[in-house]
Amino acid sequence: xxxxxxxxxxxxxxxxxxxxxxxxxxxxxxxxxxxxxxxxxxxxxxxxxxxxxxxxxxxxxxxxxxxxxxxxxxxxxxxxxxxxxxxxxxxxxxxxxxxxxxxxxxxxxxxxxxxxxxxxxxxxxxxxxxxxxxxxxxxxxxxxxxxxxxxxxxxxxxxxxxxxxxxxxxxxxxxxxxxxxxxxxxxxxxxxxxxxxxxxxxxxxxxxxxxxxxxxxxxxxxxxxxxxxxxxxxxxxxxxxxxxxxxxxxxxxxx
Length: 255
Ligand code: BG6
Known about the structure:
By secondary structure, the chain is α/β, with parallel strands linked by helices. It contains 10 helices and 11 strands. Helix 1 crosses helix 10 and helix 2 packs across helix 3.
C-alpha cells in the first residue's frame, strides 16, 4: 500500500532509503536494462553526486562491468577540475577487456583528463601467487593507492551471471549454487540475507577496507538485478550511496 502515495522520484528515494536503511539512494526514472539512455543516467546521477564530495586530491577506486563502463562514458573534462587518480579496485584480468576495471579506469582518466593506474593481476589467484604478487614493487605501489582511496564506485551483479562471466571453476560454481548466492559485488558473493558465502581471492580492495572509504557508490539497475541489489544492500556499509533505477526501486518497495 506504500506504493499508492509514491510517484515522484524524491519520494521513491526517501522510501528506499528508509527501507534499506542506508544514508542515501539516488533513483533515476526508467529501466536501465531496457534502455541505454537510462543506464547513462545512472552514470550521470552518480557523477553528479560524487562531484560535490571531491577534495583537493582524490583517489577513486572503481570496479569493472557494463554499468561502470556507463559511468565512464558519462564523464566529462569539467569533472577533472580537481586532482583525480583512478585506480582499479581489484585485480580483474580474465574477463573481457572492455569490462575490466583497468580499461574503465583508463577511460575515466581520459574522459576527465585525469590520471590512472592499472593493476595487471588476474581475477583469481592462488594463495601462493597472491603472496608473491603483493611483494612486487609495481603492484605494491598501486595497492597503496587503492588502500587510500577516498571514493569507491562499484557495480552489483546477479551471482550466477557474474560467476559465469568470470572464469569460475566448476568447484566454486557449485559452492555458489549450493550456498544460494544471489548477489555479487567486487568479487564477494552474498546470499539473500546479505551474508558472504564465497569470495574470489585477488589483490586490491578487501572487505575491511570499506569502512575507511568516505564515499562509496553502489551503481546497479534493471529488473534482473532486484534480488541481487536487495541482498547486497543488507550487507552494504551504511554510508553506501545506492544509485539505481525506478524499476528496481518500485519492485523493492513492493516487497
Ligand atoms: C563487476 C563488479 O565488474 O561488475 C561487480 O566487480 C559487479 O561488483 C559487476 O557485480 C556488475 O556488472 P554489470 O555489467 O552488470 O554492471
